Amino acid sequence: MVTLHRVSDVDELISSAALKFIDVVTAIQAPGGGLHNDGVARVVLTGGGAGIGTLRELARLDAAAHGQSEDYPALAIDWTRVHVFFGDERNVPVSDPDSNEGQARAALLHEVGIPEQHIHGLDLGAIAMEHAAKAYAGEIAEFAPNGFDLHLLGMGGEGHINSMFPHSPAVLEEEELVVAVHDSPKPPAERVTLTLPAVNRSQRVWFLVSGAEKAEAASHIVKGSPAVEWPAAGAHGTQETILFLSDDAAGEL
């Protein structure tokens, strides 16, 4: 069951998602909280305009919270109790402008004092993609064995999520959590992606969707269309699935 969270535009989408992110992660950080019952949040970040915009807003809100006086405290995430993963990555080093990890570091991670060992990147550009995929699956098994507390997802106009495109081997994968992609129709062609088995181990899955070109794909999320045709429709959280949707991407919903 997908919950529709309708907003007026991308700015309201970013604000709403960031505020809810803080509420959810701080709740997980209560003693015994989260999927692993250790008060540590495991979150998967996404790129794209709304995704990176949400990370920038989180950094802004974090700075504002720490700037408040003790008399008027604001809710703030303890970033030392967050582990960060990435839904996909292009086959480029982190220093490349196209790197999802690099963009996330610039937008948020460098700003909030998260421990370096809590940032779980794919090390692409340095090792072969198949090796990177296997190593990342091992990283997930070690640091998020029960799955993720929250997985953020952007979406393309044809319904792709992470680097799972319609009718691709990646979207058809039923066992592996991480696979290499050599023929992405969206450049660059070489990527590594989490699969639907990985996404669907997440307690919460949130789509961040804005833009008129995404209206048809958004409708297929709500309809629950076949994932092979519309990959986003195959993503579900075990507890909740929320579609943050701006008016321009809502179509007839």
Describe the structure.
This protein is of the alpha/beta class and 253 residues long. 31% of the residues lie in helices and 17% in strands. It has 7 helices and 9 strands; from the N terminus they run βαβαββααβαββαβαβ. The chain has a 6-stranded parallel sheet, with helices on both faces. A 3-stranded antiparallel sheet has the order 4-7-6. Strand 2 (41-45), helix 2 (48-67) and strand 3 form a beta-alpha-beta unit. Helix 1 crosses helix 2. 45% of the residues are buried.
How are the elements arranged and paired?
Blueprint: E1 2-7, H1 10-28, E2 41-45, H2 48-67, E3 82-86, E4 88-90, H3 100-107, H4 129-143, E5 150-153, H5 169-172, E6 178-181, E7 191-194, H6 196-199, E8 204-209, H7 215-223, E9 240-246
Parallel strand pairs: 1-9, 2-3, 2-5, 5-8, 8-9
Antiparallel strand pairs: 4-7, 6-7
Helix pairs in contact: 1-2
Concise structural overview:
By secondary structure, this protein is α/β, with parallel strands linked by helices.
